[in-house]
């Protein structure tokens, strides 16, 4: 199992009008978020991600449809299937991720701990692997 990744249950408030789920930054989530972005209109067979972050923490959710997130920390690999807006995948720093198997019309929501910063990305797998494997 990949240590910095885990599924987080989001509370669901259900009544006769439908469901409402709220995510608050801070203690419950484990980080405060400064940025929200979403992924949509993915053509069949799309692969997104293929990078890691030095410091960023994120929560990924499938708002509609489903997709798989393949995560790797330099020594082990795991796949999480996201298909429910009340279960989010937390991804911590130093995790390579690939997002694959998007269902038609899937919508992914991401809460991110930091503003967008290209310098935080590992875009080359070999650089990531070298640094991930030298972590204590
Ligand atoms: C991640 C996965 C799940 C911005 O201008 N602002 C932003 O906040 C983001 C996330 C991206 N961009 C620009 C950078 C690129 O020119 O949007 C373009 C596409 O970004 P990228 O190729 O990084 O998209 P994904 O879907 O491969 O990766 C994104 C996040 O970058 C990444 O942190 O974990 O979603």
Automatic annotation (TrEMBL):
<dbReference type="InterPro" id="IPR014710">
    <property type="entry name" value="RmlC-like_jellyroll"/>
</dbReference>
<dbReference type="InterPro" id="IPR011051">
    <property type="entry name" value="RmlC_Cupin_sf"/>
</dbReference>
<dbReference type="Pfam" id="PF05523">
    <property type="entry name" value="FdtA"/>
</dbReference>
<protein>
    <submittedName>
        <fullName>WxcM-like domain-containing protein</fullName>
    </submittedName>
</protein>
<feature type="domain" description="Sugar 3,4-ketoisomerase QdtA cupin">
    <location>
        <begin position="5"/>
        <end position="130"/>
    </location>
</feature>
<dbReference type="InterPro" id="IPR008894">
    <property type="entry name" value="QdtA_cupin_dom"/>
</dbReference>
